[in-house]
Design goal:
The protein is an alpha+beta fold and 331 residues long. The protein contains 9 helices and 8 strands.
Amino acid sequence: MRWLSTLTAAAIGAGAVAGSIAAATPSTAAPQGARAAAPTVRCTSNNPELTKKLSGDIAKALENRESLASLSFYDRPTGTSCTSDSSKKYDSASTAKTIILGALLYQRGGTLTKAEDALAHKMIIDSDNDSATTLWKRLSDLKDPAKPNPVKIQEFLDKVGMEETVLDKEGSWGLTQITAGDQAKLLRMFSGDDDSVLGSKGRAYALDLMHQVQSSQRWGATAGAPLDSMIHVKNGWMQRSQNPDVEPFDKGDWKVNSMAVLTDNGYDSGLAVLTENNRVPKGHPANEGWEYGIETIETVSRAIYRDVYPDSDGYRPSRPDFPNAKLTTTG
């Protein structure tokens, strides 16, 4: 795949070895690019005090981060929503797998074959890249096998109203361009009760797979979530290569994304946070940019859940060891 980073596909939002490492701080993983501009956060809520507090606390969580970050959050019980630069496009990495899953369920009327079920489980729970590629091709026009055109995935996006999402038509699903706003639309569809796109069986299936995501990949937009909620999550990450055909900004940059849904016990919320400009300082270990992006997401996530659910104990996700992947020259 032309979108592979300086690491193999094993490192691209896929299975990392479980373990625990300290979150990177700005001092240890300060990106080399210019500091991001002060974020503009817009919130609305049935509770005016919550609106003001959330807006201020999210902005504060982002103000000292070098990451470029966009987010979209909703909480149905309180009528709350927050956005920040939610139409900015980012490389999807493995968060595209939730789109592939939704499209597959849509095309199959919510019922998968045994083989498709096995592929979907591996794609979401283990974040297996080969399974994602197989399903992407099954949902594509293969007149030119070298450039599978994901027409059936586009049909799904059109149905959901994800107008800002741009699929990669050369088969590099990890370079699909996504926005926090569109990813939140997907989460709202999965967690809602509208049958116009997917019936209840299909929606429950998607959330169940996201609930089963392996423990080493439950970081990000889950941080601080109430412990009595049911958490559904999907993350994605990759480091863009240094190849000559890569845009200057993207060279060596870590793209780190996370999205989570909370359900059960009265919870009904979704959060998508997308980041880039998570750079590795010269001479520093490659994992610092990856860790920095994760910490940016979790700083935002904790601020949101702390404000919306002030009386709840927050979830503390473990952090996996950095993927031990071989170097590659693909870009």
